């Protein structure tokens, strides 16, 4: 993970990892048969870290917080993770594209997807209507919205509107419109 925090995933190799941890390359090869297997392992870890960041942000809400506020907190955790760890975040979606992995493969997108879906369903259970046809569509809209805004910010990180706070405000505003 330290390597990812310093450089993009494209610079990861089994030899680079071996050098970073101070072992001979064959030691790493005994853990991973190839670079793709290693990247898949790292991507799974990053997906779980992202879901954990979302859960932690939601857990920091008061028990009396509305389901909408709890969902917004999750998405603030999503944006914060993505903006604080751009190489890790970019690996998540780059790995899916580069390898042809499907988002519904166990362990990839699922922790994040399930967290948002749970939040969307809670909002529905509270009687708040949402603009989407069903909770699954609303969940996909929310994840797409947050991911799209983060991806745009990663393209121009120094633009004043691309701070984590500004992106969170944008995502929160859009979520409010979805559940208006």
UniProtKB/TrEMBL annotation:
Entry protein name: TetR/AcrR family transcriptional regulator
Pfam families: TetR_C_33
SUPFAM superfamilies cross-referenced by the UniProt entry: Homeodomain-like, Tetracyclin repressor-like, C-terminal domain
Nucleotidyltransferase as UniProt keyword: no
InterPro entries xrefs: Homeodomain-like_sf (IPR009057), HTH_TetR (IPR001647), MT1864/Rv1816-like_C (IPR025996), Tet_transcr_reg_TetR-rel_C_sf (IPR036271)
Lineage, top ranks: Bacteria, Pseudomonadati, Pseudomonadota, Alphaproteobacteria, Sphingomonadales
Naturally occurring in which organism (per UniProt): Sphingobium tyrosinilyticum
HTH tetR-type domain residues: 1-50
Keyword annotations from UniProtKB, A to Z: DNA-binding, Transcription, Transcription regulation
């Amino acid at each position: 993970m330290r390597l990812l925090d310093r450089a993009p995933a494209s610079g990861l190799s089994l030899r680079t990892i071996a050098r970073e941890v101070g072992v001979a390359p064959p030691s790493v090869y005994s853990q991973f048969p190839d670079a793709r297997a290693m990247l898949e392992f790292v991507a799974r870890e990053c997906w779980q870290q992202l879901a954990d960041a979302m859960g932690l942000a939601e857990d920091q809400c008061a028990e009396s917080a509305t389901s909408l506020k709890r969902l917004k907190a999750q998405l603030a955790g999503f944006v914060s993770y993505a903006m604080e760890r751009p190489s890790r975040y970019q690996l998540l979606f780059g790995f899916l594209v580069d390898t042809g992995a499907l988002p519904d493969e166990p362990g990839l997108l699922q922790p994040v997807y399930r967290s948002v879906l749970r939040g969307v369903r809670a909002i529905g259970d509270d009687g708040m209507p949402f603009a989407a046809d069903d909770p699954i569509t609303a969940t996909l809209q929310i994840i797409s919205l947050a991911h799209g805004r983060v991806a745009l910010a990663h393209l121009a990180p120094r633009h004043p509107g691309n701070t984590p706070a500004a992106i969170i405000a944008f995502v929160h505003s859009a979520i409010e419109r979805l559940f208006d």
